[in-house]
Amino acid sequence: MNIIISVEVAEQNSLFPHLLDESGLISKHISLENDILLSPQFTTINKKRAVGVSDILNFILSIPVGIATGLAANALHSWFVKTKTQRAKINKTEIIITDDKEQTIRLIIKSLTGE
Q1: pTM score, two decimals?
Q2: Could you tell me the mean pLDDT of each successive run of 10 residues in the chain, 115 residues long?
Q3: How far apart, in whole angstroms, are the C-alpha atoms of residue 32 and residue 93?
Q4: Rounded to whole angstroms, how far apart are CA atoms 101 and 103?
Q5: Element (H, E) at 102
Q6: HSE-up (13 A, CA, CB side) for residue 6
């Protein structure tokens, strides 16, 4: 299953280490867990921008057949926390990443299943 995800990140520095490969280029695929992949749909990121402006970056989330939606949601939530993602849009549903892990994962599951 492939799903388009838009991610809002205010701090680019928290995202760069998770996007770049060994040569300093944006990776084609970011491996989360259990062969779940995020594929960036952009080739560059502006390093200079106005103060207070967030970047919105698009990815394709690839979930292999047989992987439970809850497992995929948990892996995605872990990546959001690690990269300091503030908001994401999955299947037209906006998700605000909060300190309430269980609630955020439930919202991710709902958006992944289209409920």
Answers
A1: 0.82
A2: 84 73 84 92 64 73 94 94 89 91 95 85
A3: 21
A4: 6
A5: helix 101-113
A6: 8
